[in-house]
Amino acid sequence: MTSRNSSTQLWLITHYHENGSLYDYLQRTALDSESCLALASSIICGLVHLHVEIFGTQGKPAIAHRDLKSRNILVKSNRQCCIADLGLAVMHSQGSDYLDIGNNPRVGTKRYMAPEVLSEQIRTDCFESYKKTDIWAFGLVLWEIARRTAVNGIVEEYRPPFFDVVPSDPSFEDMKKVVCVDQQTPAVPNRLYSDSVLSALARVMKECWYQSPSARLTALRIKKTLRKLSRSLEKPKQDC
Q1: Which tens digit of pLDDT belongs to each residue from 77-99?
Q2: What's the short name of a Pfam family annotated to this entry (predicted)?
Q3: 26-45: pLDDT as tens digits
């Protein structure tokens, strides 16, 4: 809180991350499979932290982001990711069983909306429902990162999810047709399957994209899978 010309100003001071958003970073940076896995792991660690309620004096409610996308993820100077822009987030506390959601079920960025949001079938009274929409979006972000990862010297240009089937600024109806009616998911490049890390990430992606929310992985399950993958990369180095 500061005072200028005898009027009070409220300032919000945050960290500055010069790499900008993951969206910006992927435009200009081609990755290798190790850095791809590191980015994905740091995002899912952030999502687990949001989704889990922490009890005690330093505690926090469980939070679902509801607008997870590469533009809302910042890349720190050490290449770790940081989830930003919690303007649409919902909070849930077990003790009071209070759910703060606002009144618009059609929130978020249309391109990243889960099928149940587009079809307006989401259970708005259930906190778990919102966590599952974050998982759908995480799968799309993972796809964006994996496409920018080189395998045998080949890497795709950056493209947003569903770039090949919807306009650059898709409408709610555009997305609803592709995701709910046609039940399409982004095409996973075949070259990813020739790399052990990227083929494992491709599997995770697909398990984030089930039409049925309850069939999708949890953030914690993904975190454990990626941690195991990271450990399998570390072992050969120790043997050298």
Answers
A1: 999 999 999 989 999 988 777 78
A2: PK_Tyr_Ser-Thr
A3: 999 999 999 999 999 999 99
Q: Where are the domains of the chain?
A: 17-226
Q: What is the Cα–Cα distance from 74 to 84, expressed in whole angstroms?
A: 7
83, β-bridge pairs: 73
Q: Which residues have C-beta within 8 Å of that of residue 145, sequence separation ≥ 6?
A: 22, 26, 31, 36, 39, 40
To the query of whether residue 67 is one of the catalytic residues in this protein, the response is yes
Q: Dig out the tokens for 8 from the structure.
A: 């009070």
In this structure, is the dihedral angle defined by the CA atoms of residues 223, 133, 39 and 45, taken in order, positive or negative? negative
Beta bridge partners of 100: 91
pTM of the complete model? 0.93
Give CA separation, 14 vs 84, 113, 121, in Å: 11, 28, 36
Which CATH class name applies to 17-226?
Answer: mainly alpha
Alpha-carbon span 91 to 24, nearest angstrom: 29
- Choose the catalytic residue: 67, 100, 134, 169: 67
Tokens of 3: 């005072």
